[in-house]
From TrEMBL:
The lineage of its organism: Bacteria, Pseudomonadati, Bacteroidota, Chitinophagia, Chitinophagales. The keyword Transport applies. This is ABC-2 type transport system ATP-binding protein. It comes from Pseudobacter ginsenosidimutans. Residues 5-234 form the ABC transporter domain. SUPFAM superfamilies: P-loop containing nucleoside triphosphate hydrolases. Keywords: ATP-binding, Nucleotide-binding, Transport. The keyword Nucleotide-binding applies. It comes from the Bacteria. Belongs to the ABC transporter superfamily. InterPro entries: AAA+_ATPase (IPR003593), ABC_transporter-like_ATP-bd (IPR003439), P-loop_NTPase (IPR027417). GO terms for molecular function: ATP binding; ATP hydrolysis activity.
């Protein structure tokens, strides 16, 4: 399969500080790839370079085989971009705006009308066609932003923090829409929120201080990010001191009569030691599992450490 996006040895410097260093990324199929990183990690810089908004200091980016710097017009035919602040015109209606963006994309004039209808249908904004953009809710403005990124049917759709600032209902709708889009397009989506990336992405690229620190499937990421707490169900709950006596246990938090959260030092041998202690002291262990609910915190700690 031909590569949709290929980034080779990409580096970018703003005056004296490097925002991106030696980045290599390849996307060859539809689906959603998450670009995860804390604030200032280099996500927007990378996306702006991919989309030809910013010229890189070093390295090469090709989209659908075209170099974004050397053949920008060809490359941009296959890029749809939703920047962090959507480029909307408040005094345009949805229809006016989408016709305008289609013209900016130098689309074949005879195809624009049908393309506008199709993208409105896809993003669920058809019923607001003649409403001014300034009178739309945040969630609908975001949809219009996504619609302009899709209008020319690019192979690659780049969404910079698309779920930022949405309320819980809008979030659910936006995730659903992005998943639908990913059936036909390769989507690169950035976020600084791990749980957000987990909800929508199959693959994740984590960057910190401009460098890739992890790139694989979301499942592999969960294994890489070993949580340092466990959820343990015990029929005969012991006293705190008995749990703290198990080697590696640093803190315990009783959640219910039978469930306890155990914080440990990161040594994976903890499971076996808890099982052994339970057998010896008749705690009647029912279940022991990695505590994924705190992974967001682990991610925050990891990203602070690498800064
Ligand atoms: N125009 C600029 N001039 C100078 N430095 C910049 C500029 N834009 C970004 N930076 C710096 O480059 C680094 C990467 O920024 P970037 O915006 O790419 O990160 P990010 O991961 O997108 O973070 P955020 O989510 O906060 O936008 C940061 O240290 C930032 O301060």
């Amino acid at each position: 399969m031909s590569s949709i996006l290929k980034i080779e040895q990409l580096s970018h410097r703003y005056s004296s500080t490097w925002a991106v260093r030696d980045l290599n990324i390849e996307i060859s199929q539809t689906g959603i790839v998450g670009l995860l990183g804390s604030n200032g990690a280099g996500k927007s810089t990378t996306m702006n370079i991919i989309c030809g908004v910013l010229n890189q200091t070093e390295g090469k980016v090709t989209v659908d085989g075209f170099d974004i710097r050397e053949q920008p017009e060809e490359a941009k035919k296959n890029i749809g971009f939703l920047p962090q602040t959507p480029p909307l015109y408040a005094d345009f209606t949805i229809d006016e705006y989408l016709h305008y963006t289609a013209n900016l994309r130098a689309m074949d004039k005879t195809k624009i009308k049908a393309a506008v209808e199709e993208v409105k249908e896809k993003t669920g904004i058809g019923h607001f066609s003649s409403r001014l953009i300034k009178n739309l809710s945040g969630g609908y403005k975001q949809r219009v932003g996504i619609a302009q990124a899709l209008i020319h049917k690019p192979r690659l759709v780049v969404l910079d923090e698309p779920t930022n600032g949405l309320d819980p209902n809008q979030l659910i709708e936006a995730r659903k829409l992005i998943k639908e889009i990913a059936q036909e397009h390769a989507v690169l989506l950035s976020s600084h929120i791990l749980s957000e990336i987990r909800l929508v992405c199959k693959d994740v690229i984590m960057i910190e201080a401009g460098r890739v620190v992890f790139a694989d499937t979301m499942d592999a990421f969960d294994n890489y990010m070993q949580p340092n707490s466990l959820l343990v169900m015990l029929q005969n709950m012991p006293a705190e001191a008995a749990l703290l006596a198990v080697k590696g246990v640093q803190k315990v938090e009783f959640l219910t009569e039978k469930q306890v959260r155990i914080y440990f030092d990161g040594d994976p041998g903890i499971n076996e030691r808890i099982v052994a202690a339970s057998m010896e002291q008749n705690w009647r262990l029912k279940e022991i599992s990695a505590d994924k609910s705190l992974l967001d915190d682990t991610f925050k700690q990891l990203s602070t450490l690498s800064n």
